[in-house]
Specification:
Length: about 280
């Protein structure tokens, strides 16, 4: 049972990291701009992104489809709905398509799972084989605050990420890059959109809170590309981060803004707690 517990703890953390990527950096906008020759264009780009941030925040919810690759650890897809009007809520269906995490999931009986976000905790539904070795519990729950028990600051950072994984966070991160630029007019799934791009280098970030978040996530550099439609809503984003564990790439499409989001808390009788898993891992009662 202890070996299963150790694997499940690592699995839940990997899932959480994959779902959030590094999109939860919520620092104030960077005051650094490009050279004088590009100042006007830079100003227009910043204004457009701030309008997109406000419009996306006001929308309150969206349908999400994403693909994430984290080095050799995994490749996964996720789709569902997320809301952010009063804390993060939503339900995502996740499928692991490659990497060592997919192999781990396969050994646990399934390469797909359901993830539920609630304002105070995140839930992951595991397969039948996992439940057989976890006192019949199919769900793993952990309060975001419990992640602070992990070594160093990475756990608290991950908790912050999970509570802020909304489309407008990618816009905030791009604004913080300092070199945001308009990359052109393009089509996203048949609809016109404006493409903006930028690069974040952790060592060069002047905002202490943002630099700390990037450093704790193991990020050295990250490129952020987003596409905004005529309603000032984010419809696509691509993030590529050079991390200590390898290259993380995440592509997401957003649509159906304002969709109704209903997320129910799983039955208590069918749910195991992350904190309990950590205690069992450590061998404490």
């Amino acid at each position: 049972m202890q070996g299963t517990t150790v694997r499940s703890v690592g699995l839940v953390l990997a899932v959480a990291s994959a779902l959030t990527g590094v999109v939860a950096c919520t620092s104030p906008d960077s005051s650094d701009g490009p050279g004088k020759d590009d100042r006007a264009a830079h100003g227009r780009s910043v204004a457009a992104l701030r309008a997109a941030e406000r419009a996306t925040q006001r929308a309150g919810s969206a349908r999400v489809e994403s693909t994430t690759t984290m080095g050799s650890l995994m490749t996964m897809t996720a789709d569902g709905t997320l809301g952010w009007g009063d804390g993060i809520t939503g339900t995502l269906s996740i499928r692991y398509t490659g990497g060592t995490l997919a192999d781990t999931m396969r050994r646990l009986g399934s390469t797909s799972m359901e993830a539920r976000y609630l304002p105070d905790a995140y839930y992951a539904r595991m397969g039948e084989k996992f439940a057989e070795q976890a006192d019949g519990k199919h769900w793993i729950r952990y309060a975001y605050e419990d992640l602070k028990a992990l070594a160093g600051g990475s756990g608290a950072h991950l908790g912050d990420q999970m509570r802020s994984t909304t489309p407008n966070q990618s816009v905030k991160l791009l604004l913080a890059s300092g070199d945001v630029r308009k990359a052109g007019e393009e089509s996203v799934r048949g609809r016109p959109a404006t493409h903006y791009s930028g690069t974040v280098a952790a060592a060069n970030v002047t905002d202490a809170a943002l630099r700390k978040q990037l450093t704790e996530a193991g990020v050295t550099t990250e490129t952020v590309d987003i596409w905004i439609d005529e309603r000032n809503l984010l419809v696509k984003k691509v993030e590529k981060a050079r991390m200590s564990a390898g290259l993380m790439t995440q592509t997401a499409h957003y649509g159906d803004y304002g969709v109704r989001v209903r997320t129910q808390r799983p039955p208590v009788s069918d749910t195991g707690d992350f904190d309990d898993l950590m205690r069992k891992k450590a061998g404490t009662p």
